[in-house]
Each structure stands twice: as structure tokens, then as C-alpha cells.
Amino acid sequence: MANMLVSEMRLPLYLAHLLAARRLDTAKDVLSLPEVELMAILDAGLPTARAAIAHVSEAACPPCQTALSLLEERVRLGGGGRLATMLCGLDEALGGGIPTGKLTEVVGPSGIGKTQFCLKLALLAALPEYYGGLDGRVVYIDTEFKFSPRRMIEIGQKSFPQIFRQEGLAQKMAGRILVMRPTSLADFTKSPPPSFTVFLQFGRDEGDSSPA
Fold first, then answer.
1. Full set of structural domains in the chain with CATH
2. Residue 207 has what pLDDT?
3. What is the DSSP letter of 7?
């Protein structure tokens, strides 16, 4: 929606002409500017700047959806697959596990076990299908340098001893998990290969959160 053209928004003519004359061509061009800066560019007063923001926001904003409509759409589309967490209560509450093809955010205070949970999910995603995994590949984006191969092996040995006793299988699974540690925004926004399952570990000053 950010790249939606102002010329396609059916704005009031005076406003459309004013924005076009100032080369504000997309929704992003208008909405990324503070009111004061937009006033200066348009050479207009505050009411005009606010009217521009309001009209462009309304035109570019996606339609509102209720939780019920999202649920109905999910049922209609079939809901997609699930990655079982092997935690019975959690899998039952989630309807079978973590939904695939969607963004799941795991949130909680520091030390609650989010990193351990993400490490286990990474293992499960790489696990062979006949053991309940996805038999897939994983990109683990670790911006806090918390990924621990040693801890992952410990989790694997405790959770899946039958696999880690098989010679070479643990190494094969580990080879499917690519750990990325971006050090800049440019690195962070680079797209991983589309065939990978992505786990993202990051934090904030007051608590942290870990989308998986």
C-alpha cells in the first residue's frame, strides 16, 4: 500500500493537483513526512496538510477485518499445515501446533525460555517427517547472538534420543539449519531463500520477543 499512486486515489481535485505539483507521487511520499515538513513542501497551512494525510491514509489503508472474518477466511482456505511442538497442552491449544506459512510471535519476559523454545522448533522443522518433523531447512536469524549449537545438541539428545543415536543423522539435521547474524539493517532485510523455515530471535530493552 505504501507504493500506491496518489493519482489513483480519487482525492479532491485541489489536493490531487497540489500533491502532483510537489511531486508527492505515492502514499509513502505523503505519509512519511511530519506535518510541519508537509506544510512547507505544500506551501499550505496545517488544515491542508492534515487533510492530505487523512485522505491519503484512508485511500491507502487496507480494509478493516474483524477476528471473525479472519477466522472464516482461514476456515475457507483450509488453515494450512502445522508444526507440532511436542508439548501436548500447547499443541492442543494451537489446534495442532505452530501454523506454517504464517508469522508466529512468542512473547514473554527475559529468561522465560523463548530461546530454548525457538531452538527446539528449529530442530523440529529439520526433523525427518517420520519422527513428526517437517524434514525441511531452517534460517535462524539471531540478532542477539544467543544461538547455541551446544544447547541445541543437548535439547536434541534429550528430546529425540532415538535420532541422535543414529550415526550421521544429527549432523545431517544440523546442516539444514543456517544461522544468520545480521549486523546492520541492510543485512537484516535481505530475504532468505523462500524454501526455508525462518526463526527470528531478537529483543528489546524492556523484555523481549521472539517471532518464530
1. 6-60 (no CATH), 105-201 (3.40.50.300)
2. 41
3. G
